[in-house]
Structure formats: structure tokens, C-alpha cells
TrEMBL record:
This is Chitin-binding type-2 domain-containing protein. Coiled coil: none annotated. Pfam families: CBM_14, TIL. Residues 91-141 form the Chitin-binding type-2 domain. The lineage of its organism: Eukaryota, Metazoa, Ecdysozoa, Arthropoda, Chelicerata. Gene3D superfamilies: Chitin binding domain, Laminin. One of its GO terms (cellular component) is extracellular region. InterPro entries: Chitin-bd_dom (IPR002557), Chitin-bd_dom_sf (IPR036508), Ser_inhib-like_sf (IPR036084), TIL_dom (IPR002919). PROSITE patterns: CHIT_BIND_II (PS50940).
Length: 141
């Protein structure tokens, strides 16, 4: 690619990025605002007091207003409203933004992390959570 071609490409990309910023932002729920980059890097009840890694790639979406975090139900709440998960005295933390983790002491349950927000899920009847595959699988008879 020539220098002129590279400049034209960068100019197109910059225009595309800038033009996205001038579009009307989608409406967000109460206690949230639209952000063009940090929707994947939000704090929640399990990590509000920790530094969380955030990759440099922008991901647009609704984020919690200042001094609020994602609660267990996905709504933005004050950190003082955060409570330990109802399923156990143990507090679950997500160390990756998305994925599944085995639930301690119960082979039918697992912890599902979505944008660092943990929730306890249960496999359908006749299935158990496979610790290697990290998903529900049929119980062998």
C-alpha cells in the first residue's frame, strides 16, 4: 500500500469513528448512560473494589452512572446495595469477563459470568456441569 493509500485508509477509518460518535446514542435505563467504549469494562458487586483488566478495543453500550455498579440482576445500584450471592455465604467473583465456572459442592450448578457479573445457573434435568468442558452435558447411565 502506498503512503497516499495508507493515509486515505486512515482518513476513512477516522471519519467512520468520528461519524459514529455524532449519531444519537441509544436510550439507557435509569442510572445508566451510553458510552462508546467501556460497556465491557464495568464494575459490579463482585469486583467494585478491584482493578479489572480492560482490553483496549472499544465496545459501545450502556454503563452505570458514577458511584454505581451492576447488581446481581444486571441493574445499576450503589455499592452499598451490593450483597453476597443468595446461594451461598461465599462471595463469587468473575476473573474473566465471560465464561462458566463449576459451582462448589454441586455438580448440577455452575457460575456464569457475563461482563464480570456472576450468576448461579443450574443444568437442565438429566444433565450435569462438566468441569473440563465448562458446560452442561448429559448424565451417562
Amino acid at each position: 500500500m502506498s503512503l497516499d493509500g495508507a493515509f486515505f485508509y486512515l482518513k476513512q477509518r477516522l471519519f467512520h469513528c468520528l461519524s459514529l460518535r455524532f449519531l444519537t446514542a441509544p436510550k439507557c435505563p435509569q442510572n445508566e448512560r451510553y458510552d462508546y467504549c467501556y460497556a465491557k469494562c464495568q464494575k459490579n458487586c463482585s469486583n467494585w473494589d478491584k482493578d479489572i483488566p480492560c482490553n483496549r478495543m472499544c465496545f459501545p453500550g450502556c454503563v452505570c452512572d458514577e458511584y454505581r455498579v451492576r447488581g446481581p440482576d444486571g441493574k445499576c445500584i450503589r455499592t452499598s446495595e451490593c450483597r453476597k450471592h443468595e446461594e451461598s455465604e461465599e462471595e463469587f467473583r468473575c476473573y474473566k469477563p465471560d465464561g462458566n465456572t463449576p459451582f462448589p459442592g454441586d455438580s448440577r450448578k455452575y457460575i456464569k459470568c457475563t461482563n464480570y457479573i456472576p450468576s448461579v445457573e443450574e443444568c437442565p434435568p438429566n444433565q450435569k456441569f462438566d468441569r473440563k468442558e465448562l458446560e452442561c452435558v448429559d448424565i451417562e447411565h
